[in-house]
Amino acid sequence: MKRYDYYDSPCGRLLLVADGEALCGAYFVGQKHMRETEADWVRDSGSPVIVRTKRQLDEYFQGKRRIFDIALAAPGTPFQRAVWKAIAGVAFGETISYAELARRAGRPGSARAAGAATGRNPIGIIVPCHRIVGADGSLTGYAGGTHRKRALLALESAAGSGLFQERAAG
Description:
The protein is built from 6 helices and 6 strands. The protein is α/β, with parallel strands linked by helices.
């Protein structure tokens, strides 16, 4: 049985979905490819997975967390899961191109397919698809909107440079 709740982030409201002991969805409300809640899902703000995810998201948005430590269970094809695993390996504050992502996923030359799989990532922020950019460094698409992609990259840049802590203190 799936459990869900909402998280109000500085970039907009997220729908968090847990399946057993793992997170299987983190969607900006209204984003492209967002999963809708279903009749048999239970809204549960006390679900251990959801509570842990909210705490770690709070820490991320405060500039205190760079790596998420949450069990994940994203449904997808083997290729999509390979791409999402490669995305999860992109370090906080760094970006890579879709071509590099395809290479890391074991499918060099498949940048377009890697881009399509990236757009279907069901666990935004935690599987940080906002860190994938065009070959020329452009932001290109983002299921949650390029304004959010820009904001997430700016947050990571500020946190990595120490500016985030200075702003928070000042």
